[in-house]
Specification:
CATH architecture of the largest domain: Sandwich
Shape: elongated
Order of helices and strands: HHEEEEEEEEE
Structural class: alpha+beta
Strand content: 25-35%
CATH topology of the largest domain: Immunoglobulin-like
Oligomer: single chain
């Protein structure tokens, strides 16, 4: 990769030298500055409007007990330049296994740039045990225009029956 880059830079300098020689021999035409500017321009960075960063999840993905009802909490950070307001943004179930009685949840508060938010979703585990791959429920933060800016999921790798009390003799 370094060799390819070195050859490319060498070719660019040869091109500049060629243009300089032509300019020196025929000054009336002038050096094409647009060509030089295009050869050595630096790409600019465009900030992401909608972007998030996963921070934490509780409980973590893994096996769960059958019939268990609990809240899964994702902590997400807004790293896009758009503020997530309660009026415009919400959490929505986007597919996978349907484990929640609600498919849309409001954000708990407005989230500015680089701020965190805890997203809480109710999860109802079915009563029948399942083996791997288990259940996967997919969620996203979406705005009123339908733009998806943040996707996350909860993976229940398998379910096992609740322990029963051993009778005493």
């Amino acid at each position: 990769m370094l060799l390819i880059r070195s050859v490319y830079v060498c070719m660019q300098w040869m091109r500049v030298l060629f243009l300089h020689i032509n300019y020196s021999q025929n000054k009336s035409k002038g050096l094409p500055r647009k060509l030089l500017a295009g050869m050595f321009s630096t790409p600019t960075w465009t900030p992401d409007v909608y972007k998030c960063e996963f921070v934490d999840q509780d409980p973590l993905d893994g096996p769960q007990m059958t019939g268990w009802i609990y809240d899964v909490i994702w902590t997400m950070r807004n790293v896009g330049i758009a503020n997530w307001t309660v009026a415009e943004y919400y959490v929505k179930w986007t597919g996978g296994d349907d484990l929640s009685p609600k498919h849309i949840y409001k954000l708990p508060h407005d989230v500015g740039y680089y701020e965190k938010v805890d997203i809480v979703v109710d999860i109802y585990i079915p009563v029948d045990p399942v083996n791997y791959p288990g259940y996967v429920t997919n969620w996203a933060i979406i705005n009123d225009n339908g733009d998806v800016m943040c996707e996350f999921y909860h993976h229940i790798t398998q379910t096992y029956p609740a322990p029963t009390k051993t009778p005493t003799p």
